[in-house]
UniProtKB/TrEMBL annotation:
Protein name: Amino acid permease
GO cellular component: membrane
MF-aspect GO terms: transmembrane transporter activity
Pfam family for this entry, one: AA_permease_2
Length: 506
């Protein structure tokens, strides 16, 4: 949960929205809470590993399952580049040549690629090393950020920064909304589903998943709000001469510590800024390699990627594919903010699919067997609507790149469905609401005020997106219920070979 986001997201949010960044964190926190409740309820009803892909497919059919699976694969290849870019960016405190403006220089990008190669190599030798490193890194990740909030606020709290920077919302509310995704805030919460996604391997998921998820969420929200307060109230007044857009800090928190006379703590931050994301990078490469391995098992990727090393039990080919594509991403973008915001879009899409899954699967089991009970439908509905808004607020610049990449997932689905033609095709056609959802996002983003033509002005564009998202949720929920009914009928009425297909898809 606490990776490179704590080092850079408060800075990018302050730079984009000024003090209104607190609104950005509030929206991101509420959205994360809602989707966390959905994950908890799904893990409570149907504990399984890899549920972030399997629950949407079980609820909405193979179309949604395939596209969400592709989005999860994109998460896998974007995750490691975001961490390696953060490591190198903070290392610029010692190695200034790794930065060129606000992006990595070519030398910095090559160094980030080198880190990917080194940590991929370490991952090829099994899980024992990962477990040992994670125990140490987890403790450091909590202690150092907490000390950062305490020491920097105590050394340089200045409430007049709000006026110097142009007021509470110097760039308007829309800037705060865009920062939710564009500033990497959604990215900073992306570890929240870990307990639920691993629920199939937990001894008592009905007890441990809710507790682990909610404790981590509350602690992370408090930490991120504290770090945002540091950026707003402890930034030296001399840096705000050109407003919040004008601040330019390569290693933000370490630079502020130095300017406040805490040179020794600046050194600690620079060291931890390299250490903590490195630990996340080491763990993340291994975990995301399993994402790609799972996608290959589901038929999204070539079967060759399902091969596992006999000695160490590692899907080496899946790891190597992720790192290879990740290296291209680092070389192409070379900027933490760009990589993190792109990654956030794919998380937001998978969260929307999970929000539908919790209401559909909740309707198929008695109310008393769920963790949310009668709140299942309201939570799923609210989570879907706010997911739609967050995806829209990510702005046209991100949507026009992210959605075409998802078309690859649709292409894979069409190839797979063609191989399963026949009476089973009606079940395969379920989930068309996802097509409408993405078309709506692209069309309104192009016409709206978040990087579009502005034909649909704020705040009316957000209202329209919210209303249409609610309508799409209703269609998705109804489609999911019909899919459940057809799936049950298919196991009775279809020939044996097609019945096997139906069961395997579920």
């Amino acid at each position: 949960m606490i990776g490179s986001g704590w080092l850079l997201a408060p800075y990018t949010a302050a730079k984009a929205a000024g003090p209104a960044a607190f609104l950005s964190w509030t929206i991101a926190s509420v959205a994360t809470l809602l989707v966390s409740l959905a994950f908890i309820d799904l893990a409570f009803r149907h504990p399984m590993s890899g549920g972030n892909v399997r629950w949407p497919q079980l609820a909405s059919g193979p179309l949604v399952g395939t596209v969400v699976g592709w989005a999860v694969f994109l998460q896998a290849v974007y995750a490691a580049p975001s961490e390696s870019s953060a490591v190198v960016q903070y290392a610029s405190g010692w190695l200034p040549w790794v930065m060129s403006g606000e992006s990595l220089s070519w030398a910095g990008r090559l160094l980030a690629v080198g880190l990917l190669a080194v940590f991929c190599t370490l991952n090829l030798f099994g899980l024992r090393l990962l477990a040992a490193v994670n125990n140490v890194v987890a403790a450091v990740k909590v202690v150092i950020p907490a000390l950062t909030v305490i020491l920097l606020l105590a050394s340089g709290f200045d409430s007049s920064n709000v006026d110097r920077g142009g007021g509470v919302a110097p760039f308007g509310v829309s800037a705060a909304l865009t920062a939710v995704v564009g500033g990497g805030l959604v990215y900073s919460f992306t570890g929240i589903n870990a307990a639920a996604v691993m629920s199939g391997e937990a001894k008592n998921p009905r007890r441990t998943v809710p507790r682990a998820t909610l404790i981590v969420l509350v602690g992370s929200v408090l930490l991120y709000l504290g770090l945002q307060a540091v950026m707003i109230f402890s930034t030296p007044a001399g840096l705000l001469g050109s407003g919040w857009h004008g601040i330019n800090l390569k290693s933000p928190l370490a630079a502020i510590a130095t300017l406040l006379g805490l040179g020794w703590f600046s050194t600690v931050l620079l060291a931890d800024a390299v250490f903590s994301p490195s630990g996340s990078l080491l763990i993340g490469i291994g975990v995301k390699g399993r994402y790609t391995y799972g996608a290959a098992q589901n038929g999204l990727l070539p079967a060759a990627l399902t091969r596992v090393d006999r000695r160490f039990g590692i899907p080496r080919r899946a790891l190597l594919l992720n790192v290879s594509i990740g290296s291209v991403i680092v070389l192409a973008f070379g900027n933490w903010k760009t990589i993190a915001s792109s990654l956030s879009f794919y998380y937001g899409l998978s969260y929307a699919a999970v929000s539908v899954a919790v209401t559909v699967l909740g309707a198929s089991t008695p109310v008393e067997k769920g963790w949310l009970r009668r709140w299942t439908t309201p939570v799923g509905f609210a989570s879907f609507v706010i997911s739609g808004l967050i995806l829209y607020w990510s702005a046209w610049e991100k949507i026009r790149i992210a959605v075409p990449l998802l078309l690859i997932g649709f292409g894979i689905y069409l190839v797979r469905s063609r191989a399963r033609a026949g009476s089973w095709s009606r079940i395969q056609a379920a989930g068309g609401w996802l097509v409408g959802f993405l078309v709506m996002l692209v069309a309104l983003s192009g016409l709206g005020s978040f990087g579009g033509t502005g034909l649909l002005a704020a705040p009316y564009d957000s209202v329209v997106v919210g209303v249409l998202s609610g309508g799409i949720w209703w269609l998705a929920h109804r489609s999911g219920l019909r899919h459940q009914h057809r799936l049950q009928q298919s196991t009775v009425d279809l020939p044996d070979n097609e019945t096997d297909n139906a069961r395997s898809t579920a």
